[in-house]
Write a structure and sequence with these properties.
2 copies of one chain form a homodimer.
Chain A lengths: L4 H8 L3 H8 L7 H14 L5 H8 L4 E6 L5 H16 L3 E6 L4 H10 L7 E4 L18 E4 L9 E4 L2 H14 L5 E6 L4 H16 L9 E3 L5 H12 L7 E4 L2 H13 L9 E5 L13 E5 L1 H17 L8 E3 L2 E4 L7
Parallel strand pairs in A: 1-2, 1-3, 3-4, 4-5, 5-11, 6-7, 6-8, 8-9, 9-10
Antiparallel strand pairs in A: 10-12
Helix pairs in contact in A: 1-2, 1-3, 5-11, 7-8, 9-10
The structure holds a DNA duplex (16 and 16 nucleotides).
Chain lengths: 333, 333
DNA sequence: GTGAAAGCGCTAACAC
DNA sequence: GTGTTAGCGCTTTCAC
């Protein structure tokens, strides 16, 4: 059986209170007693029972991270950074996967709560505004990434409209005139914003918006990017530049182009979004929008922690984290 | 404040015991009472306080998963599957990242314990046998993947020697005669096993083991694969086939070959290991050893759960899960 | 079948 | 400064 406070107290010949004081770093303990307690602590190898401590404190000591799927590189990378940021501050993180379905997202939101975690970072894919009502039993929630729904909770994200515009402007500056977009999807929050940036950049460059150059994508996986690209290449007048709404779509597009015997960027230049680690090694390496994921993770953790402690109790805020355009072979050359 | 059992009991006009019985699905409750409790439950939106329940039960309700880094695709994918398998059985999973350093692995192992989690799946990279002594406060531990250290704890893994042999035999059957290996690293458990499989396949094919064709890799990332491949291509007699100890190394190797203006598989055929999702979309798509990751996750979760419940109390066992060779463009020509 | 009460390990009043 | 004690919310004997 595990060593309890009581065991240590008995061994040291003091009360549990004194042991508790030492364990919790309370300053005013008689040196003599402190020494004896510390000895007993070492001798028994005591480790506090977090469950009991938190039950008493009304805390759980855990944070939750809700993401669609960890096998999607963006989320794997983000989760890694969130874990790191949380660990630095002494929090443990529970990861919940939703597969990006509204139902699972809603369930997860409800299952989260004060009894399980003290706060949560959520990256919803399909949640509607109403789903947030009274969700998670009132614990602090921070939303990751931009979303179509407008709910009054904290958010941390990059400026998706500006990022998309930057990507498309880059293609335009390369002299591309028929610039396509892959990833339109009304169900996704970011799609709307990236579409807006796409259109802004087009008009900025004096290019007109062409319906047939906008390829929808049901999901943002590699295979969907390949399929969408194939369709674009089948057009009577195929595009000479493509902005993909994420790197996975772009990787798929790269393959579709290669399978047609065409060359990137010679025949068609491609830009992605997310800067997955794999994108620096694709052939050709992918030009992409690189969100500062570490900054995003830090900001989100920081915010949720401050909400939990009550350090911050301003109205919900929207934190913007930086991004950059990473120019690589797929638009160079 | 959250609704407690007592609140529900008061509202329903019964004792906490009865409510507890209903909540826990105890069969023998007077229908009348059951109805009233269920109404009160619904009216209050009661959710049990897991912390309290587990404190009482002497459980935490959590499992831990220790991995090097989630941004490495293999671990991202594996973690996703572990989470899924755990969720099916009603467990929450705490993920701990170690960056693959022995110190962090040791710390993590110690910090895990009965007060935090009820059991753990660990994928160590650098741990030594002695580090396991009395680790994790005696909770059930299941090791993921093969390792050099021989400690008496449960393990779930594929047969790495056989898998490596299969990969190299495939290259030999293609007629390749100078088959290189990338990834030798004495500090890594699996390296030894994959080297063994490599040698077995060579001698099986009547090829001799050539020292210079074995390229070490400090880490198993893409950049290291590229560097190792460059060195191999600089050899007076470069290889015509390469077995990389994981897909990331292989992806790096692909790039190194392309940068030299050579072609895969025409000039050199390449086989990887892990079957990361990205490997089906690289150019060319990568032939690779595909461990059944879902089976691995399921087996590991199953085992740790059975240890926790005491359902299984046999000596530590070694479970082997299946793998296959996924033949793609990088060896098909 | 159901209620009363003890107690899981810990912290925080409150006395001394 | 330190000990005693009352719970945090839950499960679980043990009576009834």
């Amino acid at each position: 059986m595990a060593v309890t406070l009581k065991d240590v107290a008995r061994l040291a010949g003091v009360s549990v209170k004194t042991v508790s004081n030492v364990v919790n770093g309370y300053a005013f303990v008689k040196p003599e007693n402190r020494r004896r307690v510390e000895e007993a602590l070492a001798a028994t190898g005591y480790r506090p029972n977090l469950g009991a401590r938190n039950l008493r404190r009304g805390r759980t000591g855990f944070l939750a991270l809700m993401v669609p799927e960890l096998n999607i590189p963006y989320f794997g990378e983000l989760a890694g950074l969130v874990l790191k940021a949380a660990q630095k501050r002494g929090w443990s993180v529970l990861i919940e996967q939703t597969q990006g379905t509204r139902e699972r997202e809603r369930e997860t939101l409800v299952s989260l709560g004060p009894h399980l975690v003290d706060g949560a970072l959520v990256h919803p894919e399909a949640l509607q505004a109403g789903d947030f009502h009274d969700a998670a039993g009132g614990i602090p929630l921070v939303m990751l990434g931009e979303h179509a729904v407008d709910v009054p909770i904290d958010r941390v994200a990059i400026d998706n409209v500006l990022a998309a515009r930057t990507a498309v402007r880059h293609l335009a500056e390369l002299g591309r005139r028929r610039i396509a977009a892959i990833g339109q999807n009304p169900a996704r929050g970011t799609s709307e914003q990236r579409m807006a940036g796409y259109r802004e950049a087009l008009s900025e460059a004096g290019l007109s918006y062409v319906e047939e150059l906008v390829a929808p994508a049901e999901k943002y996986h590699r295979a969907h990017g390949a399929a969408a690209m194939k369709a674009l290449l089948d057009l009577p007048e195929p595009p000479d530049g493509v902005f993909c709404f994420n790197d996975l779509l772009a990787i798929g597009a790269l393959r579709a182009v290669a399978e047609r015997g065409l060359r990137v960027p010679h025949d068609v230049a491609i830009v992605g979004f997310d800067n997955n680690e794999e994108s620096a090694f694709s052939l050709p390496a992918l030009t992409t929008i690189a969100p500062d994921k570490a900054a995003l993770a830090e900001a989100a953790i920081d915010l949720v922690c401050r909400r939990i402690t009550g350090e911050t109790d301003t109205p919900p805020q929207h934190v913007q984290t930086p991004f950059s355009l990473e120019v690589r072979e797929s638009t160079r050359g």
